[in-house]
Design a protein that fits this description.
The structure holds 2 protein chains of 2 kinds.
Chain A: H1 2-16, H2 19-41, H3 46-79, H4 83-87, H5 93-125, H6 132-156, H7 161-185, H8 191-203, H9 213-218, H10 224-250
Helix pairs in contact in A: 1-5, 2-3, 2-5, 3-5, 3-6, 3-7, 5-6, 5-10, 6-7, 6-10, 7-8
Chain B: E1 4-13, E2 23-33, E3 38-42, H1 49-56, E4 64-69, E5 72-73, E6 83-86, H2 98-108, H3 113-126, H4 142-154, E7 160-164, H5 172-187, E8 191-196, H6 199-205, E9 208-213, E10 216-222, H7 223-230, E11 234-240, H8 248-253, E12 256-260, E13 263-268, H9 274-283, E14 287-294, H10 298-308
The chains are: A mainly alpha, B alpha/beta.
Bound molecules: adenosine-5'-triphosphate (ATP) and magnesium ion.
Adenosine-5'-triphosphate binds next to strand 2 and helix 1 of chain B.
Chain lengths: 254, 320
């Protein structure tokens, strides 16, 4: 337990000293700021536009961080051989994986909080009413980030960084389209296609479940039960990915 | 209980991919390291030294055979509790300062805070890096990394210290410091197992050595025993007032003959041949200047083993 915390805090420290993260968060801040300018250009629904674009910026940057830092989380340790001296300590491989994951989770949380504060500040500045649904939307974005990180971690335990990036990105895209795709395919004549889509539906996470940005932008309330269920769904998927990642990592030679 | 016991260790790389031909890095290697001794693991490049150490530390799994570290099976988390390890060419978290780096390993070893700061100061002093305490490792030179890596291996005062080529990258002063450090560890009852291809380091420090070539242990034991049993004995005879050309009998059997002006040098392989050589020299009217017996050295053994070991067809060359 203590070892997990030690590794997690060190991972967090590593992230803090990584310039890329600052650039990404700066990029997010820029995007959120830009949303104000864009909103100014549109005549109608000024407020909605600001919220839409701001939430999208938080989501985009969050997912980019989750994918790219998630892939390197363990892979980089093996490629740079820093893993040798760590694993030569009385630490199990599971402890190592969990420590790394928790460390990145903490980084993601701080990132989201920073982006959220900037977003709220801008909303306040322009007198946009702040609704509870906005917080709910950002919380589900955070769950999505945790899920994507876990997937990236899983792929990186058995494939190269490039392949892991491609796999994770594919899961992300399919995860967002799969709900619609399944609906479309329901009436398809081609059995193979229908089966394939059904297979993907059960394999990929249904990421649209974690997307309530639309409701948040127009200020429609989302029940807390939905939020809780969606979070539980996303987190279970993340836990399953991490368990698999630990199992694969267990068998690896360095 | 021995500090390390290895029995019939075999490792082949790529064996789990059926379409790849495996490389056999270790085959049927057995050795043991007693507690409190310094054991040198010698071998040429690619012999399998690093592979052996990685298996001992649970960084990889053996294909077959068994290994025990401080009485527990290698790979078991608890077997590493009292072990310190320095990998070959050290790669560490380069965003940490020397102090943070050692502190991190102290925390992993569950030392408490005051203990950590005391050990960090002591060890930085010991490896001569006190001046670089707050410098990031990315700004360290190769030798400095080697030194801080050594400190990392010792942070929790382990019973068994496993070092993969601890002298590489160090300047002459550094080598001497590390040598003294290792000898100091033995004085405190620690066990040191290290790999090297520098024979003189092994010769001056080790109680016992093992020579591994192509994944096989070709010699194993105390240095003096190895040298008397396997060492190339030779005797150098220098004589005067005689020409090599006049000594056909001994020239034919000597290891080496050399004419230097009025003197000639005859090297014979064993003491039994001295009389034979002397009588021929005297018969030709020559005078004996000196007779010097040479004890074989570890280097002779190493070179002979490394070159003489017939390459096993299963090793190095890929199995078809
Ligand atoms: N990850 C790997 N995959 C495939 N083959 C490997 C791997 N690591 C080592 N080998 C092979 O195993 C053999 C032994 O390598 P090892 O690194 O143990 O040698 P070594 O004795 O440490 O050599 P050196 O003195 O150069 O460090 C070599 O033939 C090497 O090519
Ligand atoms: Mg090596």
């Amino acid at each position: 337990m203590q070892a997990i915390a030690v590794i997690a805090l060190n991972t967090f420290r590593e992230n803090l000293r990584d310039k890329i993260l600052y650039n990404l968060v700066f990029f997010a801040v820029l995007l959120i700021g830009l949303s104000v300018l864009l909103a100014d250009l549109t005549i109608m629904e000024h407020h909605r536009m600001i919220k839409d674009l701001g939430l999208a910026a938080i989501n985009l940057v969050g997912v980019i961080i989750a994918i790219f830092v998630g892939i390197g989380l363990v892979n980089k340790e093996i490629e740079r051989r820093t893993v040798y001296t760590i694993m030569a300590r009385p630490i199990s491989r599971t402890t190592f994986i969990l420590g790394k994951y928790c460390g990145l989770g903490l980084t993601l949380l701080i990132n989201v909080l920073v982006m959220l504060s900037v977003f709220l500040a801008i909303l306040g500045l322009y007198g946009v009413p702040i609704t509870w649904t906005l917080f709910q939307a950002v919380q589900l974005v955070f769950v999505e980030m945790l899920l994507i990180t876990a997937l990236a971690l899983l792929f990186s335990t058995f494939s190269s960084s490039t392949l892991s990036a491609i796999f994770t990105l594919a899961f992300y895209v399919i995860g967002h389209l799969i709900g619609d795709l399944k609906g479309l395919m329901e009436n398809s004549q081609t059995v193979v296609l229908r089966r394939a889509v059904a297979g993907l539906y059960y394999l990929c996470p249904n990421l649209e479940m974690l997307n309530i940005k639309g409701q948040a932008a127009i200020g429609v309330a989302v029940p807390v039960t939905y939020q809780t269920l969606a979070s539980a769904y996303g987190l279970s998927y993340a836990v399953a990915s991490i368990v698999l990642a630990c199992m694969v990592f267990q068998r690896r030679d360095f | 209980m021995d500090a390390i016991t290895i029995e019939g260790l075999t490792k082949s790389y790529g064996a789990d991919w059926p379409w790849r031909s495996p490389i056999i890095a270790l085959s049927d290697l057995s050795l043991s390291v007693k507690q409190g001794e310094i054991y040198g693991f010698l071998g040429p490049n690619g012999a399998g030294k690093t592979t052996t150490l990685k298996i001992l530390l649970g960084l990889m799994r053996a294909t077959s055979g068994s290994a025990y570290v401080l009485g527990k099976p290698a790979g078991d988390v608890r077997s590493r509790e009292k072990v310190g390890f320095l990998p070959e060419s050290p790669y560490f978290y380069d965003y940490l300062t020397a102090e943070e780096f050692l502190g991190f390993y102290g925390q992993l070893a569950q030392l408490d805070r005051s203990n950590i700061s005391r050990r960090v100061t002591e060890l930085l002093e010991l490896v001569g890096l006190s001046g670089a305490r707050t410098r990031q490792l990315r700004k360290f030179s190769k030798g400095m990394l080697q030194r801080v890596g050594l400190a990392q291996a010792l942070i929790h005062d382990p019973e068994l210290i496993i070092l993969d080529e601890p002298m590489s990258g160090l300047d002459p002063i550094g080598r001497k410091q590390v040598r003294d450090l290792i000898l100091g560890l033995r004085e405190r009852g620690k066990t040191v197992f290290f790999s090297s291809h520098i024979i003189s380091d092994v010769e001056v420090m080790c109680d016992r050595v093992g020579i591994v070539v192509h994944g096989r242990l070709l010699a194993n034991g105390r240095i003096d025993e190895l040298v008397t049993h396997q060492g190339a004995q030779s005797v150098e005879i220098v004589c005067r007032d005689v020409a090599i050309a006049d000594l056909p009998l001994i020239s034919a059997r000597a290891t080496r003959v050399l004419q230097q002006g009025r003197q000639c040098l005859i090297v014979v392989a064993s003491e039994g041949m001295i009389e034979e050589a002397l009588s021929e020299v005297r018969k030709q009217g020559g005078k004996v200047v000196s007779i010097t017996p040479h004890r074989g050295s570890l280097e002779d053994i190493f070179l002979r083993q490394a070159s003489g070991a017939e390459p096993n067809p299963h090793i190095q060359s890929r199995v078809a």
